[in-house]
Amino acid sequence: MNILAIDSATEACSVALLRADGKVFGEFEIAPREHMRLLPEMMRRVLVESAVSKSMLSHCAFSNGPGAFTGIRIGAAQAQGIGVGLDIPLLPISTLAVLAQTCFDRHPYNNVLVALDARMQEIYWALYRRDENGCASLSGSEQLSAAADIRCDEAVECGAGHGWLAGLSSAAAIPVDASLLPDARSLLSLAKRAVEQQRAVGAGDISINYLRNRVAEKARG
Predict the structure, then answer these.
(1) Positive or negative: CA dihedral 130, 141, 146, 119
(2) Are 141 and 126 in contact (CB under 8 A)?
(3) pTM higher than 0.90 for the full model?
(4) Which tens digit of pLDDT belongs to each residue from 183-218?
(5) Measured between alpha carbons, how far is 192 from 199 in angstroms, rounded to an integer?
């Protein structure tokens, strides 16, 4: 199983690959509005470094939102192109879940409130816990709210994401990594779990998790 992962839902752009032998390869760059230019070259370099050809890929995972509309669509389009071209299944994964997994991969906490600035004085947020396998597991549901309406559960140990800079910082006296952004390397852990749980979908059946419209819109290839 060789899984390619793409994240372009925020100002960060990243690509990673989980090779069949368990080794991970990846690239990450903070580059607002440069995703369309960067993604193809990042994918090429990761494939070269891992010595995995496109034809050897078994799955392609991508962050399907919430986040920046254009970035989400760019990532979805890249994943769809790979899925159609190689006839392999896709793994749409929540951006907030990827952010939570990135937090768990870098910090020793087990419960996190992740938050991304949604503009218009609103925040995309959710509570995630580290499960027995070390993967981010959603507690409750993902939400779009004004900062003043968000309350930390007493179990929350830390915060992550730039939503904490949009008026949320006073919500609780907990450690916060407001600079943390989703990373495709962490997306791989969630993608592997999705494969094991048989949650892969065809290229024509992916959905975009916008949250703002409270609906998942089917992406058109």
Answers:
(1) positive
(2) yes
(3) yes
(4) 999 999 999 999 999 999 999 999 999 887 643 344
(5) 10
* Element housing 116 (H / E): strand 111-117
Tell the burial category of 21 from Cβ atoms under 10 Å away from its Cβ (0-12, 13-18, 19+): exposed
Token pair in block for residue 49: 């470094």
DSSP state of 17: E
Q: What is the mean pLDDT of the chain?
A: 93
Q: CA–CA separation, 144 vs 181, rounded Å?
A: 18
Domains, in order of start, for the chain: 3-93+182-218 (3.30.420.40), 95-177 (3.30.420.40)
Q: Is 86 exposed, middle or buried (0-12, 13-18, 19+ CB in 10 A)?
A: middle
The 10s digit of each residue's pLDDT in 127-173 is: 999 999 999 999 999 999 998 898 888 889 999 999 999 877 655 68
